[in-house]
């Protein structure tokens, strides 16, 4: 009976959803990791989105682009988590202020010897959320402008604008790195 | 900047490469798959638990409602165990209220004396003036007719330690229910009522009179328990009313004589 739990696990997720998971999980998590800065949070959001898809698969499975739905759910979950974390950080700041203790903000400045990857990551984390998401979905997940717009529930023009603004900022980082 | 400028910049291969290097290798979906299975299983269990909890809540609510309904009916017919026995075939169906307690000596609060301020409204009220609306009166020209009353005419409160007589005012609407005996495995009881007073006759091998309640102005002159008969004599001045309960072997018959 030792193998029974494994067999049960194998039967848990629908085969069609499992194949979608295999095909899209990696790129989704990588893109959202770039947005959130935490692979753990990104993986959690993506897996929960797939769980929700499994629960509603009778409906979601009929969609032309079920992965688009899953992506939106994952993004929303990540945003919710970000809001929650932001509230926690603000609460910590208020708490520190009330107790006259110094609350140290997360260090974002880079040392002089930072690599291009570190500088790029720092610059990306400093971008507005929509710019980060647009860049991550377009460059890391490989979506088209239209798909990115659908995922973010924005117009294509708005996505192009965010991509442009984000590129300008990141190019500056890369240029500085290249000059060194 | 125009839209074309945006489009020209989209294919920035260098930036794309830099971002992908920054992001690192793709996470392994196969390695993450067992985690997805676990989450799906947990979600399914939560859903089953939620459904089970909902079912349990519905069941508990239904039970509570059922119990409440049961209590409500208890107020109408307080005792579950007694069965009702119609006294005579002309006295209605015998449904409705019964004595809430069949044991001898029930109604320890003692029946309260009717107020005696309200005149009888029963048609044909006769020689003995009724002081208890709803509890009936001796019809004119008859000295043998008896109204058998249930204990609610004593306010329905005898077993609650005495209460008002108000509920007796509704007695007219429940006259059928007055003509009932209450039976348990060990005893049969019945409330016999007349204009002069009332008592509860109990048969549990022998017949006895309990909870004797004289009407206003009357007093209990004598209580006689003998064999299958219990008799109470109420007196008011020179006037005497005898209320008798006779055990027929299966039920009580109440008689009054002035």
Tell me what you see in this structure:
The complex is a heterodimer of chains A (180) and B (258). Chain A contains nine helices and no strands. Chain B is α+β, with helices and mostly antiparallel strands. Chain B is 28% helix and 24% strand. The relative contact order of chain B is 0.12. Classes of the chains: A mainly alpha (180), B alpha+beta (258).
What distinguishing features does this structure have?
heterodimer; A: 180 residues; mainly alpha; Arc Repressor Mutant, subunit A; 9 helices; disordered N terminus; B: 258 residues; alpha+beta; 6-stranded antiparallel β-sheet; 4-stranded antiparallel β-sheet; 4 helices; 10 strands; 24% strand
What's the short story on this structure?
The complex is a heterodimer of chains A (about 180) and B (about 260). With about 180 residues, chain A is mainly alpha-helical. Chain A has two domains: about 80 residues; about 70 residues, Arc Repressor Mutant, subunit A.
Topology:
The complex is a heterodimer of chains A (180) and B (258).
Chain A: H1 4-10, H2 15-36, H3 39-55, H4 57-60, H5 66-98, H6 116-125, H7 129-140, H8 145-152, H9 156-179
Chain B: H1 3-10, H2 13-23, H3 29-76, E1 83-86, E2 147-148, H4 175-178, E3 180-183, E4 188-194, E5 197-203, E6 207-214, E7 219-226, E8 229-236, E9 239-247, E10 252-257
Antiparallel strand pairs in B: 1-3, 2-4, 3-4, 4-5, 5-6, 7-8, 8-9, 9-10
N-end to C-end Cα span of chain B? 117 Å
Number of helices of chain A: 9
Q: Round the mean pLDDT of chain B to the nearest integer and report it.
A: 62
Rg of chain B is 38 Å
Strand content of chain B: 15-25%
Q: How many individual domains of chain A?
A: 2
Apparent shape of chain A: globular
């Amino acid at each position: 009976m030792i193998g029974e739990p494994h067999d049960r696990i194998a039967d848990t997720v629908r085969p069609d959803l499992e194949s979608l998971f295999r095909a899209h999980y990696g790129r989704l998590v990588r893109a959202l990791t770039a947005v959130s800065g935490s692979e753990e949070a990104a993986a959690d959001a993506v897996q929960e989105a797939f769980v929700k898809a499994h629960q509603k698969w009778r409906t979601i499975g009929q969609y032309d682009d079920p992965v688009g739905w899953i992506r939106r759910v994952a993004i929303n979950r990540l945003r919710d988590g970000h809001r929650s974390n932001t509230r926690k950080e603000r609460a910590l700041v208020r708490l520190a202020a009330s107790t006259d203790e110094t609350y140290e903000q997360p260090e974002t400045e880079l040392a002089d010897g930072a690599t291009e990857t570190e500088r790029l990551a720092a610059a990306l984390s400093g971008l507005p959320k929509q710019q980060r998401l647009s860049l991550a979905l377009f460059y890391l997940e490989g979506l088209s402008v239209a798909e990115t717009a659908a995922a973010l529930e924005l117009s294509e023009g708005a996505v192009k604008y965010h991509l442009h603004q984000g590129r300008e900022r990141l190019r500056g980082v890369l240029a500085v790195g290249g000059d060194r | 900047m125009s839209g074309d400028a945006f489009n020209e910049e989209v294919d920035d291969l260098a930036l794309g490469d830099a971002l992908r290097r920054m992001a690192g290798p793709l996470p392994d979906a196969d390695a993450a798959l067992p985690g997805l299975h676990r989450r799906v299983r947990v979600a399914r269990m939560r859903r089953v638990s939620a459904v089970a909890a909902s079912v349990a809540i519905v069941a508990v609510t239904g039970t509570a409602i059922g119990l409440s309904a049961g209590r409500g009916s208890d107020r109408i017919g307080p005792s579950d165990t007694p069965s009702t026995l119609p006294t005579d075939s002309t006295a209605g169906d015998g449904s409705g209220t019964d004595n809430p307690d069949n044991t001898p000596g029930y109604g320890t609060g003692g029946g309260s004396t009717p107020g005696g301020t309200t005149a009888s409204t029963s048609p044909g009220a006769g020689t003995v003036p009724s002081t208890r609306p709803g509890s009936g009166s001796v019809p004119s020209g008859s000295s043998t007719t008896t109204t058998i009353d249930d204990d609610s005419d004593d306010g329905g409160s005898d077993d609650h330690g005495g209460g008002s007589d108000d509920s007796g005012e509704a007695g007219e609407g429940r006259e059928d229910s007055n003509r009932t005996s209450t039976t348990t495995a060990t005893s049969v009881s019945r409330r016999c009522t007349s204009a002069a007073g009332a008592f509860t006759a109990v048969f549990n091998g022998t017949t006895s009179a309990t909870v004797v309640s004289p009407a206003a102005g009357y007093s209990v002159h004598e209580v006689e328990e003998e064999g299958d008969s219990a008799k109470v004599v109420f007196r008011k001045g020179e006037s005497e009313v005898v209320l008798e309960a006779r055990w027929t072997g299966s039920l009580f018959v109440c008689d009054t004589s002035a």
